[in-house]
Amino acid sequence: MRRAIAASESRRGAALVLSLILVMIVGSLGAAFLQTTAAGARTQTHSVDQMQAFYAAEAGLAEAFLAVRMGRSGVIASAEEPAFFGESLLWVEALETGDHRVWIRATAVNGLARATLGQIIEPAEPPLGFFAEEDIVVESVLLIDGFDSSERTYEEEVDAVLRDAGESPWQRPSPDHGEPAIVVDPSSPHAEAQRAALEYEGIFGRDHLRHFLENQVEIPERPTCVISVTPFDPRLFLDESAFHRFTETIVPMFDAHTSGSLFPVPDKVEEPRSRRRSRSKGRGLKRLHERVTSARAAADDRLWFNTGKGGLLGSNGDIIFRNARGEPAAVHGAVTPGVSSEVRNVESADVSGPTVPRSLPVELRSVDVPDVVLERPIHHDGPIPRILHPGATGYEALQVGPGSELVVRGPAEIVVGSVSVESGGKLTLDTRDGDVELFVTGHLALANESIIETTAERSTEVTIQAASGDRLTAAPRLDLEASGAFHGTISAPQSIVRVGPDFEVFGSISARRLEIGAGARLHFDDETFNGLLEVPKQESWRIIDLPNVGSLVAAPAPNGQPALAAAHDLSGVELSVQYIDRSGRSHVYTGPESAFDWSDVAAVAGTERKVERPESEPGDDWWNGWGIDDVVRVLQRIETRVERRIDQHRERGSFRGGRDDD
């Protein structure tokens, strides 16, 4: 009995121990579950914070990109005083390198998460059109207008103007082709009108006169007539008194033409330009030269037909119209002199746009010549075209003799000491496979009766930049007296550029001094033709790895931090703005943007900014371990891949230009 009781007493409390063990196990499992749930919640919260920080940093990049587009520095807030956006704090750093690129780094902090994004952009320069540092003097007939080659070609733009005038695009006036003159019939009731038409036929050309009477004259109530000077402007041929006499004969000539008594011989219809181009391909240099010289002798309709808008002639000094030959200059667009300068004798010219001086001076960017070894000079005077193959090369000189042709085939970056194309020679810049960049450190002389040809449709495909080879060498002079259409941009900030009467430019020119020959045709190619603000070019974008996740600090709650849009660094930004205040009065402000009160602005008529960014090179820690050499190496890899792809296509013959005769 006692043993049984003792055994029973020895097992007393075992169930309690088991219960405690089970409770501990269940508690441990519950604690582990709670810890797992909390860790998952923290992970999910961190993921949300990380995503919000990423989006905030992306918003900071977009805001800085817009700031650079507006002419500001791109710096927003700072790490010490960040800006507030959404639930994140962020700041944007920016610096400009020696090659005029802007490096941007945006950092955002949200909770325990942080994101950093980087971007390299090339700021867009304000459109200058045809610009000179010194005064511009226009002494003879001139045509300046504009178009946007990214939308359509110049010919297509002129066709649109003609369609708006109710004319079929390809029924433009063409040269007279040697047809007989207007016959005056003394017995006709329109004899006086025929005599007047015969006189003005000799001045305008019969096709121009007929086009004017058919498409640019309206007679709402006799003897009153309404005329249009677009696209053909008779004032380019007549002085003021002669133009007044011409207007008195318009109604009689109109009646004579309506009755069929003015033009007994039907005029020919001009062939489409695209058809003429395709038909002229493959003709020899001699025939091309004959066609160009004959076109110069004939009435060239491109001088009188234009887009009617978009031109831009500018200077840091005065712009003077002297009208020495009694032939007015036609500028279908703006004429912008320098600060405190003026447009003189504007009444002797036909200027359709504003002539208001610019508020801030323009500083032309210097030309950085690539460092390449110059090979021996090339003097080509043979009958077979000489082809310079794609690539980055340099020559001491390029000279083209009479009857010879030199072809520069893109993609090409060529540095040359001097360029000379003699009378009868031809220079072709072929951009069908890539852009052509020509750097000239000496003189560039395209002689009279020489030929220039570019295959480009857009002005960005061909670039001619002039700069002295060293500080002791005088700036080169560019004499552009050749015949032909040049599609491209010319940058010569230290040089004198002379544009001959037969050198037709579809693009832009900036120079220290700009000399314009009689009858020059300058067509400004720029996106601002359609009222657009040019967008900076993005060259690189990447997510930057965080160097040490454990060192991240949680973003504090908003405590007086400015909003993102209000945190721009305006130090060093000069602003010129024309605006209307809230009371309806107009004002012009020029000075630091940091001192300007935007709250009183109701409407803005125009703005112009100039920013001084300190030039420096990013350190190796700018991309958190990615230095400049790393970025350049990546860009070189991309370029190498593109070149390898081009070579593969050329070997298969599927690349345009792969079946060259070189």
Task: Write a brief structural summary.
This protein is an alpha/beta fold. The protein is 25% helix and 29% strand.
Topology overview:
Elements (H helix, E strand, L loop, with lengths): L1 H9 L3 H57 L12 E3 L2 E9 L5 E9 L2 E10 L7 E3 L3 E3 L3 E6 L6 H11 L26 H14 L1 H10 L1 E5 L2 E4 L12 H9 L1 H9 L14 H8 L4 H13 L13 E5 L3 E3 L7 E3 L1 E4 L6 E2 L5 E2 L26 E3 L5 E3 L2 E5 L2 E3 L4 E5 L2 E5 L2 E3 L4 E5 L5 E5 L3 E3 L4 E4 L7 E5 L10 E4 L3 E16 L3 E14 L3 E6 L11 E8 L28 E9 L4 E7 L8 E11 L16 H25 L10
Parallel strand pairs: 5-10, 5-30, 6-11, 7-12, 7-31, 10-13, 11-14, 12-15, 16-19, 17-20, 18-21, 19-22, 20-23, 21-24, 22-25, 23-26, 24-27, 25-28, 27-29, 28-29, 29-30, 30-31
Antiparallel strand pairs: 1-2, 2-3, 3-4, 4-32, 8-9, 33-34, 33-35
Describe the structure.
The protein is of the alpha/beta class and 662 residues long. Helix content is 25%, strand content 29%. It is built from 10 helices and 35 strands. The strands form 6 sheets. The protein has an 18-stranded parallel beta sheet that branches. It has a 5-stranded antiparallel beta sheet with strand order 1-2-3-4-32. It starts with a helix and ends in a 10-residue tail after the last helix.
